[in-house]
Amino acid sequence: MGAPIPLSPLAPGAFPDLPAIAGVRYATTQAGVRYTGRDDVMLAVLSPGSTIAGAYTRSATRSAAVLDCQEKTGHISDQGAAILVNSGNANAFTGRHGTDAVKFVTEAAAKALNLPESRIFTSSTGVIGEPLPHDKITTKLDELVVNLSADTIKDAAQAIMTTDTFPKGSGTTVHVDGQPVHIAGIAKGSGMIAPDMATMLVYIFTDAVVNQTVLQSMVSALNNKTFNCITVDSDTSTSDTLIVGATGASGIRVTENSVGFMEGLRQVMLDLAHQVVRDGEGATKFVEISVTGASSDTDARTHAMAIANSPLVKTAIAGEDANWGRVVMAIGKSGAPADRDTLSIWFGDIRVAHEGWVDPSYNEAAAAAYMKQQELTIHVDLGLGGGTAVVWTCDLTHGYIDINADYRS
Amino acid sequence: MGAPIPLSPLAPGAFPDLPAIAGVRYATTQAGVRYTGRDDVMLAVLSPGSTIAGAYTRSATRSAAVLDCQEKTGHISDQGAAILVNSGNANAFTGRHGTDAVKFVTEAAAKALNLPESRIFTSSTGVIGEPLPHDKITTKLDELVVNLSADTIKDAAQAIMTTDTFPKGSGTTVHVDGQPVHIAGIAKGSGMIAPDMATMLVYIFTDAVVNQTVLQSMVSALNNKTFNCITVDSDTSTSDTLIVGATGASGIRVTENSVGFMEGLRQVMLDLAHQVVRDGEGATKFVEISVTGASSDTDARTHAMAIANSPLVKTAIAGEDANWGRVVMAIGKSGAPADRDTLSIWFGDIRVAHEGWVDPSYNEAAAAAYMKQQELTIHVDLGLGGGTAVVWTCDLTHGYIDINADYRS
């Protein structure tokens, strides 16, 4: 597996203090699926009456666990629920064996927790194409159940890491009708690495009472503005999974009109999404790309993602080069409408290009100084209409090549 | 501009001996547009009666010269024609000034050559966003006209280079109705670099007699199987230009049924396209990606380009890692139909994955040995239908980061 990957320079100072979510308990253990000397299985159990919403990778080669979760999401139940995750093996591209492995694990977990199989959600992340040693997981279930605790969400965040360089957590407390409601979540992901497919996995919990269809519609809408707006290397995992569980333990009901709750959930999702970018393979710069003035929001997003995924834009950022020519190139190739002569580009507050040419007041020294910052914004106004989009990415550095080409034996 | 870029390890041994094309003469000179101590302007003049076909970038931010060439291509004329190219400045994203600069240059060239402006085709490649110093080019026109020669196609190939590490030429002689017809072409391109936008420029000449509409339909069809099937970094130039001129000097007429001529033209175009990949920034491996069994040719191409552009696939190749998991990932994310359980993947002759799982006979040592070769093939069969595609790419190495991030001051 090569040398350890150093902590991302963009990592937050510490794992945050997260609010406890009544109705959710966590346990972790060392099952030795692949890694040794660290926890690699995480169980989260939600109390009866919890509602579950989810969003999953659109990959055509998605894993057996993802297919199983997708089938179970949307099902209404008064029973509790559980999320069981292993790191070290993704159980992806494992054919019939993969489907069987999910069945073994969910059956065993359902029995250990006295829950219907339809309420057991599993994820696997790590090496692909190798059979999942499901016995190593199922033999640990009794121990996991005994050790369930409300206080170990940080351990849960650590157990699901693969090539992540820091555990990712975020939480908030919002008020609904004057009453406090809590939200806390964890995530893993740092790009994609094979054999460790460092796919994105996200689990968020709240003690609010939320109808499943309301929760699902919130999660789907917010996912499009958060996790679907980040890119490290344009590659898409076979296993991306976002599950949001609402235990209802607070007794506070959230409806589709609960703007404060939705905003709190958005903040937690966005914070976790940003942390995934901050742990991007080899990342040294965190970059927000905003596009305005597009013909539509969809066009704005197409342009923003073309810029965010361009290897030439990303290497320029790594080189601290205010290379607006590469931004023009990315806009040109995106396929969405653009007019060279109405285009303006800003790096931070510095307008570098205006109406199809370098800005008359452009000062290369000021732009070069700006590019030395660790957090950057690139803003493009297309001058065509009212469409807007914001996405987040990181730079493309030698560290990315190191992690993906050199470090593997 | 930083240190010089070392010669690509994939470069051919020498510039090929190209057949002379009756009716085409070349001249080059040092105009000092940006580079010093080397030729940076190339003039090619075609005899009266030549037909001209072309293919151009689809970028929405294409340069003024590209727009001008597009407008002129398809025009029928009995007059001669000329192609005037400068390196060092792309005259892209230069607003109204850019359009004016093309006008100045084409007017001056038309006068110097006694040709209508509609028969002057120009290209510019190099730094973008800076005004083209068109006077430096136009003052050299008389010298260029005096020095026109049939024997200097290699000088022409060198004058159009920017960050290319070797000049690119290809030629062949085919027989039409038993009579020899000659084809010779030059190209430049090695990815895209700003400020040097190392865009692709290609000029191919033949002494065949070819009706303009026949030539254009051949060029358009062959372009889709050659230059449109290569990728270095997924980025698209503002200036990509392919011009094919047929002088008719051989007196041998080619029709849409001249299979031998079309095959010769295809070989020259493919050879030049491959040379661009071989000069890909930082490239150490030349990779053919073929997809069969797709639902359609379009789907096959979508999958092949997703594999060819995936940073994770390309870094795995750089690391000499037979990482078929990343190929599965790229297929999954491409958006075209795929069924995990009918998918097979080969690295060279080694079948690494079959029917949705690692091949039972897979031998990692054999695959690792194969990956050490400089020329690689990856073949995917989707098991869905009859759609096929072949594309070519290179690996993603530290050299790419060096060239695009580190080397620029």
TrEMBL record, chains A, B:
One of its GO terms (molecular function) is L-glutamate N-acetyltransferase activity. InterPro entries: Arg_biosynth_ArgJ, ArgJ-like_dom_sf, ArgJ_beta_C. Keywords: Acyltransferase, Amino-acid biosynthesis, Arginine biosynthesis, Autocatalytic cleavage, Cytoplasm, Multifunctional enzyme, Transferase. The record marks T125, G126 as: Involved in the stabilization of negative charge on the oxyanion by the formation of the oxyanion hole. It is found in: Cytoplasm. Pathway: Amino-acid biosynthesis; L-arginine biosynthesis; N(2)-acetyl-L-ornithine from L-glutamate: step 1/4; Amino-acid biosynthesis; L-arginine biosynthesis; L-ornithine and N-acetyl-L-glutamate from L-glutamate and N(2)-acetyl-L-ornithine (cyclic): step 1/1. It catalyses: N(2)-acetyl-L-ornithine + L-glutamate = N-acetyl-L-glutamate + L-ornithine; L-glutamate + acetyl-CoA = N-acetyl-L-glutamate + CoA + H(+). The active site is at T199. Its main location: cytoplasm. It is an enzyme of class 2 (transferase). Its EC number is 2.3.1.35, 2.3.1.1. It comes from the Bacteria. One of its GO terms (cellular component) is cytoplasm. Heterotetramer of two alpha and two beta chains. Belongs to the ArgJ family. Catalyzes two activities which are involved in the cyclic version of arginine biosynthesis: the synthesis of N-acetylglutamate from glutamate and acetyl-CoA as the acetyl donor, and of ornithine by transacetylation between N(2)-acetylornithine and glutamate. HAMAP family: ArgJ. This is Arginine biosynthesis bifunctional protein ArgJ.
